[in-house]
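Progress report, Aim 2. The chain analyzed during this reporting quarter is listed below.
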Amino acid sequence: MDATSQVPDAHTHLALQSIHELLRAQRRRIRKHSESYRTEGGRKPETAVFTTDLPPAPSGPEILDALPWPALLVAPLRDGEGQARDALYVAQNTASRVYAAERLPSGGLPHWQGTVSLFEQFPSLTATALPGMLTDALRERAPQGPTSIEWVVGTTHGPVRINDQVRVSPCGEHLLITWDRGHRPQMAAAAQNLVRTCWAEWNLGDGGVDPSRGFRRVLGLDGRTPIPTLDELATAVAPESLPDLYRTLYDVILRKRTGSCELRLNQAGPKVVRMTAEPVRIAPGSLVWALRGVLTDVTAEQRRRATAERAEREARRQRERAEAVAEVAGALREAVLPHFQDELAAYGLEATAVYRPDAREAGVGGDWYKARRLPGDRLLVALGDARGHGLAAVTLMAKLRYALAGLAYTDQRVEQLTQWLNELACADGDESTATAIIARYHPEQGLLRWTCAGHPRPVLVRDGRARQLQDPDGGPGLPLGVLPGETYTVADEALRVGDIVLMYSDGLTERRDSDPDLDTQRFLEAAEQCLRGTSPCAGHAALNAYAERIVAELDGPHRSDDATLMVLRRIDTTPSAP
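Predicted C-alpha cells for the chain:
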C-alpha cells in the first residue's frame, strides 16, 4: 500500500516504531518457540527403519474414490482441428454419485449404460466454458480452472440449475473433470461486496497474508498491489489512527483477546475501515501465531454520521434561535398588545380579545389589535394582520400599531388615517404589507365608522343572528403597503344596546384548499351557536368567555397561522333609577 507522501512528525514516527517493535518482538517469540520444537530438548530424532515390503499401488478406481471432491474421467473426442467436440464417459468416483444424489431429484436422470456422450447427456454444457477447457487441457497438457460454470440439467421433474467451480486436468490420454459447488465462493464474494467487508489472516511468524477475494476492493487497492502486511498496513494508516491500531494489536497479540478499531487510510479519497481482530493459536494457552481480522468499509457510514451530526447541530442552533426569537417577540407582543378590562365601559363599549399563536412558527405572528380612548371621548378600534411570521412580523405589527396610535390624535377622519398608514407601510419596503380594519366609535351616537384594507369584514351579532357588515362604498381597499396613493372609503354602522361586533384575523377561519365563502359561513354559524348555548351576561368576564367559546369552536390542528378575535359589545351607560 502507498503510504502518505508527507514526512511523518516525531509523534507519528514514534507511534509507527511502537507498532513495528510490537510485531518484531512477537516474531522473535514465535521463532524461539519453533526452535524449541525442532531441537526437542537437544536430542536428535531417530531414523525410522522399515523392514516390511510396501503395499501394492492402488488401482485407477481406487484413486478416483480417494478424491474428496466429485470427479469424472472422460475420453475426449476431437475434430479435424484438434478441438474437443465431445467427451465419452469412462468412470466416476463415489463423491460424484453422492453429489448427483444431493443435487438432482431421485429418478430424475436415466441410468448410464455403456458408452455415453457427455454433451448428449447434458446439452446445455456445450454453451459453457467446458468445451474450451477440454481443448486447452489437451493442447497445453496442463490443468485448467477453476472456472465457474452454470448450466441446466433437464430431469423428469423439471430443469435444475447447477453452478459449479470446474477443473479439467490431463490424465494420460484421458481427461479428469473435477468440480465443487460454485455457489459458496460466489455467495461469499457477493456478501463481501454487499456489506463492503473482507477478511484476512496475517501470519506473525513470517509475515504471510491469506486474504479473502474482496480484500483489495475494501481497502481501495488495484489488482496489482500486493496485499499489505501488518507493518505495511500501519504505514498506510493516517497518524490519528495509529494509537487505536497499536491498542488493537496489543490486545490481540499480548492479551490474547479480541480487539477492534477504526482506521483512516492515507489515500487520494478519504476511506475509513473498521477492523475487528482475534488471536489465532495452535494450542490453547500457547503463543499467538497469527491474527485473523475482518475489515469493513465504513466510509459511507462515517459520512452519514457526520452529516447527521451537522444536521443535529444546525437543528439545535435553529431551535435555540427560534426560542430566542419567540422570547423576544413574545415580550414585544406582551408590551404592545392591550389587556382589556373595563376601561371602555364608561363610553358605552365593552371589549375583549383572544389570541392564539401559530405553534409551528415559534409561537409568534403578525396579528395586532387596539382599542383606546381618543380626545373628544371617541374610541379608536383596530385589528390587523402583518405579513409573515416571527420577529419581522412582530416588528412590522408594532410599527403599524404605534403609528396608528399617533396618527389618531390628529383628529382626522378614519379613512384619512387608513390612507396615511398605507403610505407609511409602502415607504417601509416591499415586504411591509398588512391587512387591517380601522374604526372609530362615537359613543354619543352609538356609531361605528370603519374602513377595510384587504381584511375580512367585521361581523355584527344582533338578536341572536350573525351577519357580515356591508362593504364600504366602492368595496374594500387594498392591503396596506401594496400601492402608494390608495384611497379608502368608510362605512357607518349604528349599534344598538346589546349588539356585538366581531373582528378577526383570517388565521381563525382559513382552511387549506377551502372556499373563503365557506370559511366565513362557518364563522357566522359558530358565532350564533356559541351565543345560543350561553348568552353572555353583562361584564368583561362573560364577554371574554363568549370569545373563548368561538375560538375553541373554530380552532384546531388544521390552523396554519396565528389567530385573533376581538369582541366589542355596546352597553347601556344610562344611570339606573334608585
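The CA atoms of residues 80 and 519 lie 93 Å apart. Residues 299-336 form the longest helix (38 residues). These observations will guide the mutagenesis work planned for the next reporting period.
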